[in-house]
């Protein structure tokens, strides 16, 4: 389900939005598998390594900024599902505008959690699934990081849509907590522990299925050897992806009656 698809945007249900979150798991896990092909390659993140004329920052920051500048001109960030990591100084889209169905409450546009996503990814996550070491593939590594970051960002900000659907389905449950600006009450209302348990199990299973070697001969596949550790993927969701999605949901709901 995409916001660009007006029929399904009108027929928004919690089920259809959850279906999209399930589909996005595939994108995220494949992106992690691709990144795990490279070791950590820390010079890609080292501010003193790149020395790019006219730019101060890491190779990764350079790649993300330049890619976002180009993608902004191609219209990427006119899509309410997309959020830039470096929103300052982006040029407006140069392509004809697409008439996205307005599903979200307008203040949603100001919610951008990418700073927290960036910190989570580099401070915590990367060391859990990339092997230590340096193979010199810094630009390819940074390009893989960007794919991971954009997939995680899209998923986490999808919380805006999840929150909108929850609000539409039971406004009377949410309105008192919104009027009281009570974050804890909102967090309680929007949390479904049984769903979270299923998500954690499913992403671990997907990491096993997608990350197994496929062979045509009768040799036993390398049992228990996956391209990205299923328990890391489960932990990524439990500790960062779902909590950040819920933060987006709370932020969104706090402004739902503005
Ligand atoms: O499915 C929902 O209801 C969501 O809000 C999404 C999500 C998630 O991030 O996967 C977040 C909060 C819920 O507790 C369960 C799952």
UniProtKB/TrEMBL annotation:
Q: Which GO terms describe its biological process?
A: amino acid biosynthetic process; aromatic amino acid family biosynthetic process; chorismate metabolic process; prephenate(2-) biosynthetic process
NCBIfam families in UniProt = CM_pl-yst
**Entry's InterPro entries?**
Chorismate_II_sf, Chorismate_mutase_AroQ_euk, CM_AroQ_sf_eucaryotic, CM_II_prokaryot
Molecular-function GO terms, alphabetical: chorismate mutase activity; protein homodimerization activity
Name-wise, this protein is Chorismate mutase
Q: Where in the cell is it found?
A: Cytoplasm
> What pathway does this protein act in?
Metabolic intermediate biosynthesis; prephenate biosynthesis; prephenate from chorismate: step 1/1
Annotated signal sequence range: none
Gene Ontology cellular component?
cytoplasm
Recorded hits in Pfam families, A to Z, give: CM_2 (PF01817)
Q: Say if the entry is tagged with keyword Isomerase.
A: yes
PROSITE patterns in the record, alphabetically? CHORISMATE_MUT_3 (PS51169)
Does the keyword Isomerase belong to this entry? yes
Location (main, coarse) = cytoplasm
What keywords sit in the KW lines? Answer: Amino-acid biosynthesis, Aromatic amino acid biosynthesis, Cytoplasm, Isomerase
Q: Which PANTHER family match?
A: CHORISMATE MUTASE
The beginning of the lineage is:
Eukaryota, Viridiplantae, Streptophyta, Embryophyta, Tracheophyta
Gene3D superfamilies according to UniProt: Chorismate mutase, AroQ class superfamily, eukaryotic
Q: What is its EC number?
A: 5.4.99.5
Provide the catalytic activity annotation: chorismate = prephenate
- Per UniProt, residues of the Chorismate mutase domain are 138-249
């Amino acid at each position: 389900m995409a916001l660009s698809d007006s029929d399904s945007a009108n027929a928004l249900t919690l089920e259809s939005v959850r279906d999209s979150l399930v589909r996005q798991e595939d994108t995220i896990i494949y992106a992690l598998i691709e990144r795990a092909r490279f070791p950590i390659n820390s010079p890609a993140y080292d501010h003193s390594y790149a020395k790019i004329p006219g730019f101060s920052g890491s190779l990764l920051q350079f790649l993300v900024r330049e890619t976002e500048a180009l993608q902004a001109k191609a219209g990427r960030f006119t899509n309410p599902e997309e959020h830039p990591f470096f929103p300052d100084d982006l040029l407006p889209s140069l392509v004809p505008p697409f008439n996205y169905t307005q599903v979200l409450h307008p203040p949603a546009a100001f919610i951008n959690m990418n700073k927290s996503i960036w910190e989570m990814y580099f401070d915590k996550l990367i060391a859990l699934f990339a092997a230590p070491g340096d193979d010199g593939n810094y630009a390819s590594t940074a390009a893989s990081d960007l794919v991971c970051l954009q997939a995680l960002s899209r998923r986490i900000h999808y919380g805006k849509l999840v929150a909108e659907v929850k609000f539409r389905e039971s406004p009377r449950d949410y309105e008192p907590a919104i009027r009281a600006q009570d974050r804890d009450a909102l967090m309680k209302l929007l949390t479904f522990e049984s769903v979270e348990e299923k998500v954690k199990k499913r992403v671990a299973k997907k990491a096993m299925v997608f990350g197994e070697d496929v062979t045509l001969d009768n040799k036993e596949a390398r049992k228990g050897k996956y391209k990205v550790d299923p328990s890391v993927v489960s932990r990524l969701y439990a500790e960062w992806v779902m909590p950040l999605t819920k933060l987006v949901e709370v932020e969104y709901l706090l402004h739902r009656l503005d």
